Amino acid sequence: MAIMPVVKMDNPVLHQKAKKVRKIDGSIQKLIDDMIDTMHDIEGVGLAAPQVGVPLQVVVIQMPDEEDVITLINPEIVKTSEESEEMTEGCLSLPGYRGDVKRFTSITVKARDREGKPIRIKGEGLMAQALQHEVDHVNGIVFVDHLESMDKLEKTEAEDEEESGSI
Ligand SMILES: [Zn+2]
User: Fold this and answer.
1) Ligand 1 mean position, distance from CA 24 (Å)
2) Distances (CA, A) of 114 to 18, 23, 149
3) Domains in the chain with CATH codes
């Protein structure tokens, strides 16, 4: 078990497009395991490799109360709903803040799983939000980039930090 430090918003790795994984070898398996350990340690809903300082297109997501971790390698959005809605969002790389971001209510992502098998995941609600947040991360986009200005960021109270800083 290895917990990796989560990089903060001022780190350039969060603002550049991550590289596609060409070969899913032992080092990628170890990265996935360490990312899952890290996500569990900080009680996050999802984590993208750039958030642990690794510029590769790898994402792990686990919905609250779900046992299964979804691993997405080289994820790409293939379909979105017409509707979108403002959703309150935070990021593990910006603890203590949240903002309202417009997200599609439903979304389909294609990727490879950790065995390299092509998969498609359709998500709605929190899952759709997490998928968009994490696919953004591997493309060098963070949620504050979607805000009109940094003034739209809200400071969260200490007691609901866990809830708000979860992706
Ligand atoms: Zn994030």
Assistant:
1) 24
2) 17, 11, 37
3) 12-164 (3.90.45.10)
